[in-house]
Amino acid sequence: MSKKKDDKKQEEVNYQEVAEQLAVENAQLNESLLRERADSENIRRRAEQERSKLGSMHKAMVVKELLPVMDNFERALKSVPKDLEDNGYIKGVESLVKQFTQTLEKIGVERVKTVGEHFDPNTMEAVTMEEGDSDDEIVSEELQSGYTMGEELLRPAMVRVKS
Asked: Distance (Å, rounded) from C-alpha 150 to C-alpha 106?
């Protein structure tokens, strides 16, 4: 009879050990699952950021290709003879340039402010320097517009600087 009691005690101890082992294994699996979920979320977030960055990059590439077209329209409008300024065709081209500018603004493209501003080598390229009365370098003329989209400089402005 004492042998049966010893066997029963051994069985109880074994069940208790098994329960403890299962509890430890369960905790490890839960921790592992939480880590995997966090990793998965990080991968999803990173992929979304890369998709967004790639979209912005493509948008910037397209805008960079369109900027020379905008420049040519603006040059054409600056060279219109005085007697043709009220012509309907010229008014139509002016409307087209205005619409083009508004569309660029809607997608976040901004023109770099130049004339009358302090020269900023981060957003401007000085084509010529002129002597002036002050020590400050002030932009006196814009030769070609510069553009930014968000924090990115699409094209620096080409300017004449007076110092």
From this structure: 12
Query: Cα 78–136–144 angle (5° rounding)?
Result: 25
Is the separation of the CB atoms in 142 and 114 below 8 Å?
A: yes
Residue written as tokens 């309907």? 88
All structural domains of the chain:
108-163 (2.30.22.10)
Alpha-helical runs (H) found in 79-163: 88-106
Q: Is the confidence at residue 12, as pLDDT, over 60? A: no
Q: Give the mean model confidence (pLDDT) for residues 124-152.
A: 90
Residues in the chain: 163
Q: What percent of the chain has pLDDT over 90?
A: 75
In the chain, beta strands by DSSP E: 109-111, 124-130, 138-144, 147-149, 152-155, 157-162
